[in-house]
User: Fold these one by one.
Assistant:
Number 1:
Amino acid sequence: MNITKEQIDALNAVVTVAIEKNDYADKVEKVLTNYRKTANIPGFRKGHVPMGMIKKQYGKAVLFDEVNKLLQDSLNKYLVDEKLDILGHPLPKAKQDFDWDAENFSFEFEIGLAPSFDLDLKPAKGITRYEISVEDEQVDKQVERIRKQFGKLISKGEVLDQSDIEITGTFFNEEKNIDNKATFKLEEVSEKNRKKFVGKKIGDQLQLKTKGLFEDVHSLMHYLKVSHDEAHDLDVEVTFTLEEANVREEAELNQELFDKLFPAGEVTSEAQLREKIKENSELQYAEQSNQHFLNEVTDYLVENTKFDLPAEFLKKWLRTAGEKELTEEEANNEYESSEKGLRYQLIESKILNDNKLHPTFEELKSFANTYVKNQMLQYGMPIEDESYVDGIVGKILQNREEVERINKQLVFNKLLDFYKGNVKINDKKVTFDEFIKEVYKTEEA
């Protein structure tokens, strides 16, 4: 067997695999001999069918299978041994005059090669990395939400004129097949309709127009169970039957509440609760800030790292890469939509390879171990038996999806640390509202 590579240009090559009879003859003969032992052909005893008949009936199919196995194994080994960094998979070149009756065969494969390029991690202006602070006002609001969430519902006999009263009832319209029970606050109802609810008692019915019923038209999707498109155009009358009117008494900031929120005894005062809320908010904000920073670096690298791709090869490969063969136009569109992602994959791969950042098995195991222990602590489970933890970790590492998830998180962390240490950065301290306005270019917090 002989394998050669013809370099077409920097990004394209053709690999030729020449297979001779002595490469496959013994394998084919062995398979046919086994066929002869088990073949059940009328007129012949089992194991006594003439080999000529076996070859005539099965020879071509066995030859085809064995040559293809040999071809795939040798091609894959060649690509690994030669350390060829290819994109997609090798594409066989069709031959009009290919003859399976010949003794020697030659197969050609087109391959697309990954480009070589350099990275510039020092943009002239630098990339902004936000440090989001947690304001006392935000902690106040979170404390208030917690007190309401864990507070007691106090039933009222009627709808009071206060925005936070919770109303429960059923919306009905036979024509539009609306028959849905919903709970909402009076403040969600549009201002012009609120007075229709105030003073109504349990069992009362209201006739309401859906158009302009709520401050947000999308509320119709949740409370009337209509589609998004219907919600925007819905203009019918519905009957609302009042079933409950409740106010929520805020929970006291006591040990009972603290133990509902955190493992028993971890928080024992309002001051500690506020500190916990601040810590958790800072962690959440840091995650958002880190994700934004990583996205910004990604965009910068993709836009400023110039290299060519074997575009025509990749478009041809995309036609047959999926379960369904694509048309030329579909493959071209698929390439256009995925080109940016492919470019970043190559950039990321270069960073991981050049800096030896690929997660090791020990790192995967350590990450899984920490994750399991954090979950146990979250649910108040004592960590006394390390073998129990190791057992859970072992099961996680046997789950391919879990391993991929952990590997993805580790790569994220490693890239983030690498970028923080190597990219030119402009640090900027902001509140969360300022972060939202700057990042999403909106006036709404």
Number 2:
Amino acid sequence: MGRIRRAIGMMSGTSMDGVDVALVETDGDRIHRLGPVFCRPYAEGERAVIRAALEAAPGLARRDGRPPALAAAERVVTDAHVAALRRFMDDNGLTAQDVDVIGFHGQTALHRPQAGLTVQLGDGQALADAAGVAVVYDMRAADVAAGGQGAPLVPVFHAALARMVGLAPPLAFLNIGGVANVTFVRADGGLVAFDTGPGNALVDDWMRLRAGRPMDAGGAAAAAGKPDEALLNWLTAHPWFSAPPPKSLDRNWFSPGVAAHLALEDGAATLTRFTVRAVTRALAFAGDPPPRRWIVCGGGAHNREMMRLLREALPQATVITAAQAGLDADFIEAQAFAYLAVRSLEGLPLTFPATTGAPRPLTGGVTARPRR
């Protein structure tokens, strides 16, 4: 492997809650240290601009298209990342000379790999110029161009995390962001990964539309409601769930409007259980033996009702949060993009046939170097 590099990862997820920042020291294979983390929340006005871009994005015919709504959101996303990075570096006494690379995911506006389209908003060159540090960005494009799903990208990092903390396979990392994805680390060390279905996006959108709140904090509304079993059975009969991986999902594939006939709490209960049932459907592709342990990260790890339902639905396994495994549930994806940036610099693969359907292990990412 190459030399140990100090990398900063930056992630703006499909939940649109803010910009996560994390420092990782790695050679692109092993994780040598997980450093400090930081989150810069989006202001509501910034979220509104990003939401407008997501609503406009399905009309894109080219991944480099930037009609006004997307151009405005790209400026907002880039400026927010610059501000978050400056605050993070100041808080931790870091200068540009202390950092080898920044891994920049950007904000996904559209993900339709079947059409060869994956669009992450964010100007990597502008971030490199502002930081004075090389930036690796656009990490999904090479995989999609080769016929892969372009997602999930984090599985190779999940495997490195498992080695770092001594978690023995078979196990699963379940990331519940706006969309949920799973990495199965099989007993032989092999990886299988894919999006399981909706994560927090449906219930977040439901709460925003019906209650004017950004999320169901702690799952309180879902815990108070009664799920619509007929609707759940109809939703989980969607062909997506029986299709074998690789597969990945756009945030807006499913709509909270399917629960429009329900009261607030009943809709939250139904949509939260939809996420959990999608996870249980994923077990069909886990291999034998199935995971003995599930490590839950992302925003869903803070949803007490979601965690209760997962434990109820997976009684033969131990279901814990990343924090209970000694990890930071909120920053694993930001950490992953630091790790992936170093892998990109080293020419190591980011994606694999069993994680994205790539035709072969593929590296990826575009490197922007600061212009002096």
Number 3:
Amino acid sequence: MLNALILTLVLHVSGQIDIMCEELKTISSTCKSNPSSTKSLVKLHQKIISLSNNIEKFFSFVALLQFIWNTLVICSIGFMVVISLDTNTESKSGVMIQFIIPYLAVTIEAFVFCFAGEYLSTKSRSIGDAAYEAVWYDLSISECRILLFVILRSQKRLTITAGNVMDLSLEGFTSIMKASASYISVLHAMY
């Protein structure tokens, strides 16, 4: 449920970002008919940032607990696999199948959180790109300045963190997997 909620919220924010990028692409034609359209874009951008910050506040601690738990479970499952492979049982394949399903479930759960953070971060960069690619040379000087502020504000990417310790990204996912593998090898060496 928690993974579905975070994915839904991130997809909603990214949909709002897509709407803003489309409005930035057509800014020169809308500014001639409606001079306050650049100000409405700034308000939309502020709402997107605010919604992203609210998602970050809600999911930051939850994501930290989730990653600590997932790391412990991955290490435990890996250690049990190492122990079961060292025993002289004939049904090693049956033991491996028992451990693969929970391992995949925990790994996919960690991946979903990291993918949501990476997707939000990537989408937030597209605002600055769309503002830069807009036909800003057809706008008035004051509207160009407003557009410049949108570009400057979009330089700070939107992220979801795990307890303000690490960004949820695919890089963070690989570091979690590397840490889990190294813990498994240490436990195996000690056993």
